[in-house]
Design goal:
By secondary structure, this protein is an alpha+beta fold. It is built from 14 helices and 22 strands. Keywords: Membrane, Transmembrane, Transmembrane helix.
Amino acid sequence: MPAGRDVDYRLQGYDVEFLDLEVEGLQPTQQTEENKPVGGNSGPHLDDQVVQSHQPSDHLSSHSSLSHRDTRRTSALPPTLLGRSSPLRTYTLMIISFLCGTILAIGHHLFYEGLDGRHVPERDQFIIAGHHISSQQSAIFGGTALVFFAKFCFSFSLGHVFNQRLWYTMHRKWIKVKGLDAMFKVPGDPLGFFSLEMLTKAKTVAGVAGVMWCLSIAFIPIPGSLSVKSVPVTTLNRVSVPTVNITDPAVNFGSTNTLGAYNSPSTFAQAVASRTLTGGQVPAWNSPCGTNCNYNLTFIGPAFQCSSPSSVNIPAVTPKWIANQTKGADIDVLTISYISDSAAITTSTTNCSSYRSTYSIGVSFKDGVFDIRVHNVEHHEPFGTTEPLQRWGVNGAPGAFNPRGLGSIAGIKDAVVKAVSGSVFYDIQVGLILQDTLILYSTLASYGANETTRYSSGQSSTAVSFGPDVPRMVEELLANTTMALMASSIWTTSTEAIVTFNVNVFSYDMRVLWAGYGASIGVTVVLIIFGAAAVRANGGGGDRTFTLIGATTRDPSLDEVFGQTLKDKQGASSRLEKKLKYDSVDADDGPRMTFHVP
């Protein structure tokens, strides 16, 4: 019998061929009067079915006219496919855009590294259209621009990787229409990730799309790698500072008698001594060199050299603290005696000799807080006020004949002596009584366990005591009074000051910058490898262009899915459940790559 026409069907993804289909006594293309249907109402015979298989109706011809090839033997994007890109172009776009992003990242690093540690000027750097742009703003603008363009390059590269994996996956799997919808829109619409069909059938495509969306997260910390911080800067400046100049003939801290000789400390000197004694420290003055600076000074002034307290038995208890005024023919001595042990009926005595001395001090201001320290006191010659002051400074000693200068030194010293001289005794009814002295208002005296407690008027406690450090404290009292003269700014001098001030500088943390860029570069490299493999397997580059989509949807079988008219309101959701696959088919006019239904 004559052989029938070959019919090729695809069944469950396999090629099944029915060859040499024959019907007993009937040619496939012939029909006799005997086997014609009568009246057109009787059902079709087997012969009719065979004939229909070889001579299809308009509807069936749309399916049987295309023969589907084995996917494994065809390229997804052959060279003759309209809208397809060459492999070289696709490789170039993926790699070059990645390299551009990497170069921009390196440039961003070098830009910030050049700014690191540089001073941020306060003045405007540019004026654009009337807008003042500072150096800090221009640095931020430049860094932001580099981040933007680097992200653009990496996103461009990943976009091409996504397209290659998209065509690679559609060529190998049957995917529902709704899954294809999600795959095509997910690069621009994150709602596509809610498609279970895409997540299960196109995992790599979904992964690349996820990286594209999350890439922005990696770039978030990068602008924060450059900040502005305040750092201390130290310079050496010559500044004008307060000092002590007792040899200045225009200033005299001692009053004179009718003969013009030194007689007693001036009222101003006594006020300075009293304020220093009761305050317990040198009064502060305004910084001449800023909120953070320090400088050293040397000057001439009076100083005490006190002996350690000695204990002596006395025959009777006298309720007095005895402070003797100056005495001696050639040296002034302050003698302080007080009862230190009432049970043993003994007194403690400290003798303080007066010297013309050179002070070496350090003055500092830290955040505006004043501090002054005595580094060294060099004693020269002793001096006394009971003989003519002209005798002081003989034999070539420092500070030769200068009666007014000598009177100032004596006035400062005697102002301190006058403040501490006098008596203190205890009255059983009223308590401690002070007579011509401020000693109990100073830090020399302490009360009971709380040594920081100061004397107050009417205090009844008898637990006042003078410790073994009284000699040192008396020396400090005269030194502080002398240095307190600087608070009046009577004299100034020029000296080198170490000035520390805070400046704003750029601070670059490369770890923050490369944490973002490093993650982007690493992930992009891995995905480019996947994209390149897809280009090789596809035989070319694919995009989501209208041309390529139109060229790959020329299968008449797609009318089952997309042949709905505007008046047809039924079955829209069921059409989205249809599975499609992109592969090669044999059409009447030759093979073509297209989407088709099973």
